[in-house]
Write a structure and sequence with these properties.
Layout lengths: L1 E5 L2 E5 L3 E2 L9 E3 L2 E4 L2 E4 H4 L8 E2 H7 L2 E6 L4 E7 L20 E7 L9 H10 L5 E7 L4 H5 L9 E3 L4 H6 L6 E5 L5 E6 L8 H4 L3 H14 L14 H18 L3 H14 L4 H4 L13 H12 L17
Parallel strand pairs: 1-9, 10-11, 11-12
Antiparallel strand pairs: 1-2, 3-7, 4-5, 5-6, 8-9, 10-13, 13-14
Organism: Streptosporangium vulgare
Protein name: Redoxin domain-containing protein
Pfam families: AhpC-TSA
Length: 321
């Protein structure tokens, strides 16, 4: 038996070749091809993934433009999101769908980041600007949901925990705090930016919360997003692959298979050394203090390589704003 990690779910499957007659990643075999809703993969293309024994899961995912990392020795396969998601629209998840018709600030944070102390300020903005048709949705990148929940006790805004890293993958989030603005039609109004709601750690990150919050208010009240960039920054193939290795590493750590998990974590770090959402985010599952020496060694490593911890620098930090 193999565990399939895909589309935010864990599912047991008999093997990497699925029997004929089963749905595959939500797609169903019909006479003219494989279909999911109105979308179809024609039969002549799907034939490349079909065998006498069944449907090759890895090959079928490839037809859909989805990367796969399989560790059959450990009995787990992870399937990533499609590579051709529209960059100008906000990928749907959980509470975001229900908030269509309002402006939304997606606030990515984690308990292993000082930005956890900004949550009350984001809650205050959610309340203050709610009358203008605005909502905050906070997304914790904690791999352990319990670590996030202790910081969410007082919030009323929609909050989710991205324990499997799927939302971070959809929005190409490589560190926290990261904020994405989504307009009333579900379009990206401002892509992934480092943004703080307080100056608690300004001495470390150099960011002005006053300017950032002023820019947010202008967008909510006046409709001025202050940028011409209206698409999410797309991940590279290596970044996408790194997130799948991280997903396997998290699953293996939880299963008590530390040696196998560390192999996948090392591969993820090699593919995307700058991705702190992976490298720091998995530290707690590995028994490592995310505020300790290993984290500061990681910071030194990235700074020595010329890789910025907080990037890209939002233009509201410029004197023009």
């Amino acid at each position: 038996m193999i565990t399939l990690l895909a589309d935010g779910h864990e599912k047991p499957i008999a093997g990497a070749v699925l029997p004929h007659g089963e749905t595959v990643l939500g797609w169903e075999r019909k006479p003219h091809g494989w279909c999911r809703g109105d979308a179809c993969v024609p039969a002549f293309r799907a034939a490349a993934a079909e065998t006498a024994e069944g449907v090759d899961l890895v090959a079928f995912a490839g037809l859909l433009g989805r990367q796969v990392v399989a560790d059959l020795d450990e009995g787990v396969i992870a399937v990533g999101e499609p590579a051709d998601l529209p960059l100008g629209r906000a990928p749907e998840f959980g509470p975001l769908t229900a908030l269509r018709g309002t402006k939304v600030a997606l606030v990515f944070w984690a308990s292993w980041c000082g930005c956890r102390y900004d949550l009350p300020a984001w809650e205050a903005l959610h309340t203050e600007l709610g009358g203008y048709g605005f909502n905050v949705v906070s997304v914790s990148l904690d791999r352990d949901p319990e670590a996030a929940r202790e910081w969410l006790g007082e919030v009323t805004h929609p909050a989710v925990v991205d324990a499997d890293g799927r939302i971070a993958e959809l929005y190409n989030v490589i560190n926290v705090p990261t904020v994405v603005w989504v307009d009333e039609e579900g379009r990206i109004a401002r892509p992934q930016d480092t943004m703080t709601a307080t100056d608690t750690f300004r001495s470390m990150n150099g960011l002005s919360s006053e300017r950032a919050v002023a820019a947010l208010r202008r967008w909510v009240i006046d409709g001025d997003a202050g940028t011409t960039s209206r698409e999410l920054r797309a991940p590279t193939g290596d970044e996408r692959l790194a997130r799948l290795h991280a997903r396997l590493a998290a699953w293996l750590f939880r299963a008590g298979r530390g040696a196998a998990a560390e192999r996948h974590l090392a591969r993820a770090a090699a593919l995307a050394p700058h991705d702190l959402a992976i490298r720091r985010g998995l530290m707690p599952l590995n028994g490592v203090d995310p505020f300790g020496e290993r984290y500061f060694a990681l910071r030194d490593e990235l700074e020595s390589a010329g890789i910025a911890i907080y990037r890209p620098l939002p233009d509201w930090q410029d004197e023009r704003v």
